[in-house]
Amino acid sequence: MLNSVNFGYFTPNVYFKGLRLQRDLQQKRAAFSPNLDKDIFLSTINQKAIPFLGEKHISIKAAWKDPSVREKIEQSVLKGNFKDCPKLGKAFLRKIEVLCSSRLSDDQVYKELRDYLDKVRPQVNNIWGVDDKARFSRRAAQIKEIIGVDKVASFTDVGCGDGKVTLEIADALKLNKGKLTGLEVYVRQDETYPFDIKEFDGVKIPLPDKSQDLVTLFAVLHHAKNPEGLLKEIHRILTPNGKLVIRELDAEDQSSKLFNFVMDEMWYKVYTPYDGVPIREDGYHSSKEWSKMLKESGLQVEKTMKVEPKNPYKPFMVLSKKGNVSFASNTIKKSSLELVA
User: Fold this and answer.
1) Which of 144, 259, 274, 314 has an alpha carbon 20 to 30 Å from 241's alpha carbon atom?
2) Average pLDDT for residues 171-188, to the nearest whole number?
3) Residue 170 in 3-state DSSP?
4) Together in a domain, 307 and 191
């Protein structure tokens, strides 16, 4: 996908790349029929031209009035996105307070927040860009921890974005770049990928049956219109003992769902403005619900690992396998890789 929800991470140039991507995406949309546009929506991208999304019911104002959600928002700002500039973070929270107490609509609130942030964009870009390498290394270490010592000969990252995390994982696994594939619904024209990059419709994967030892999905499923269909396609391309690792957000209660939805809106309307990623009210599930969906797609869930326990998004990873293998009961453990807030 365009970007994953990550605690305290932004790329300096992603704001301007997002604007270019919006322009290019609008041009690309014009070349498709409405029916094909619906097919494209089945992935993680392209919501603006789709009339069947329905009305949005979750409001940032309602979220801000909920004490438990507000606490998570404040934590994500002060200990995540603005952790290296607390003064700016506190000012940003005060702006949210003022706007959420106004009569402005949600879209107007987000626009005011974006305009406010644009005034200090160079400063925040410098702050947000410093965590890149640490984040990449953290993802690679988490993948190595959850998959264990098994050899990986082929690897596909579904929703690979700019490919930087993908490369970090491949390097950590000592994988031949010729056996590395990235999948994206919209391949960035301003990026150079040092591996095979394929464009797909968000469901049908252009890879042969039983061809991949490892597939990863980082914060992709909660944006997908048809996550079950995508998981079944991944099951198809996995080798007999191939592994799928997903990273998702544990939305185990209503306040978590509300927080994740609002912060996704904050991400794509304020932090890194881009209207090409659908934000689905019904896309957020608990870790148990995601595991159930994996099993229903023919995958065997081996373990679930809670990562970054101080992260208010409650990220977790699930390792599942394909094959006639008997596993012990699914256990949830805490990763040793904690995010230092």
Assistant:
1) 314
2) 91
3) helix
4) yes
Block residue for tokens 């912060």: 263
Query: How many Cα atoms within 13 Å fall on the side-chain side of residue 246?
Result: 27
Bridge partner residues of 217 (DSSP): 158, 246
Instruction: Identify whether residues 320 and 187 lie together within a single domain.
Output: yes
User: In angstroms, rounded to a whole number, what is the distance separating the alpha carbons of residues 196 and 181?
Assistant: 5
Query: In whole angstroms, what is the distance from residue 253 CA to residue 256 CA?
Result: 5
Alpha helices in 164-311 (DSSP H): 164-172, 227-237, 254-266, 287-296
Residue type, 173: L
Cα(308)–Cα(256) distance, integer angstroms? 16
Alpha helical stretches, state H, 31-131: 34-41, 60-65, 67-76, 86-100, 106-118, 121-128
- Residues 74, 142, single domain; the answer is no
Q: pLDDT-derived band of residue 339, with 50, 70 and 90 as boundaries? A: very low
Q: Please name which of 140, 136, 175, 138 lies closest in space to residue 155, comparing C-alpha atoms.
A: 175
What local confidence, expressed as pLDDT, does residue 24 receive? 52
Q: Does 280 score more than 90 pLDDT? A: no
Q: How confident is the model at residue 279 (pLDDT cuts 50, 70, 90)?
A: confident
Q: Do both 157 and 287 map to the same domain?
A: yes
Q: 209-244: buried (b, 16+ CB within 10 Å) or exposed (e) per residue?
A: eebbbbbbbbbbbbbbbbbeebbbbbbbbbbeebbb
Per-residue pLDDT of 284-319, as tens digits, reads 999 999 999 999 999 999 999 999 888 999 999 999
Confidence of residue 56 (pLDDT cuts 50, 70, 90): low
Indicate the SS3 state at residue 313. Answer: coil
Structural domain span for residue 97: 14-130
Q: Which amino acid is at 196?
A: D
* Amino acid type, 228: E
Query: Does residue 2 lie in a domain region?
Result: no
Residue 1 lies inside a defined structural domain of this protein: no
